[in-house]
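--- STAGE predict ---
source: upstream dedup step, 1 unique chain passed
mode: sequence only
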Amino acid sequence: MTPVTLDPQGPFKRDPPAPHQMRDRLTPTQDVVVLCHLGVPRIEREHWSLTIDGMVERRHVWTERSWELLQSQSAISQYH
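--- STAGE serialize ---
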C-alpha cells in the first residue's frame, strides 16, 4: 500500500466567501468550504482505490481506471 502524503501536514480550513460575494449558481471549486483536522491527503491517481467489503454480499474494489470505465447515468426527480 502506498503511503498518503498530507499537504499541509496539520489542520486546514478554507471559509467560503461572504454571501454577497457569491454570484454564481454553482460554487467554484476554489470557494468550496474545506475543513480538514489532520491535513489534506494527496494521493497519486494510479494508487487510488475504493474498497467496499465487510457486511456486504460481495467485496468490490474500484481503481481509478475501473471507475472511469463505468458508464455515467443521470436521474432527474422531484421530492417534497
